[in-house]
Amino acid sequence: MLHIIAALNEDYALGRDNKLLWHIPEDLKRFKDITYGKSIIMGRKTFESLPCILPKRKHIVITRDKSYNILDERVEIVHHVEDVLKYKDSPIESFVSGGGEIYKQLLPYCNKLYLTKIHSHEKGDTYFPKFDKSNYHVIEFKEHCYGNIKYSFITYEKN
């Protein structure tokens, strides 16, 4: 099964200069808890923005660069978005985790969206795709606050 996990603001901004716009410990913990032991699918720039290869996860990196290589058994390099569609029918959960273009291309194939919605309007240079919420129903909604940052955990499931 393919799912999405993302943190975005009210304007759907994800990040700027290849960095997240926020550092919210509870959001990072949620990402870890949800993806631990699973596969995470991302574009090359998102992969390179990680502090390290995340433990106990398979990293599937999408890049057009045919010479791109990571010599680590926890990393699989693919060159087309279509190459990850094999995971949509798998009983094992895989999580699309960025960036904006990868989200846009894989959103139609994802069953659940695990979103952290930050209630703010920072400008970004990378955006989550707008999606028709009538195609989903909310299965989780929890409001939180970190310092002066208000945010919600919202999980959507496809109808």
**What is the ordering of alpha helices and beta strands?**
EEEHEHEEEHEEEE
Biggest pleated sheet: 8 strands, mixed
CATH fold call: Dihydrofolate Reductase, subunit A
CATH class wording:
Alpha Beta
The CATH architecture would be 3-Layer(aba) Sandwich
Function: Key enzyme in folate metabolism. Catalyzes an essential reaction for de novo glycine and purine synthesis, and for DNA precursor synthesis.
Enzyme class: oxidoreductase
Pfam family, one: DHFR_1
Organism: Clostridium autoethanogenum
Question: What structural keywords apply?
Answer:
single chain; 159 residues; alpha/beta; Dihydrofolate Reductase, subunit A; 8-stranded mixed β-sheet; 3-stranded antiparallel β-sheet; 11 strands; 15% helix; globular; DHFR-like_dom_sf; one-carbon metabolism; DHFR_dom; Dihydrofolate reductase; EC 1.5.1.3
Care to describe what's here?
- It comes from Clostridium autoethanogenum.
- Residues 1-159 form the DHFR domain.
- Its EC number is 1.5.1.3.
- The protein is α/β, with parallel strands linked by helices and 159 residues long.
- The protein has a single domain, classed as Dihydrofolate Reductase, subunit A, CATH 3.40.430.10.
- It is 15% helix and 38% strand.
- It has three helices and eleven strands.
- It has an eight-stranded mixed β-sheet with strand order 6-5-4-7-1-8-11-10.
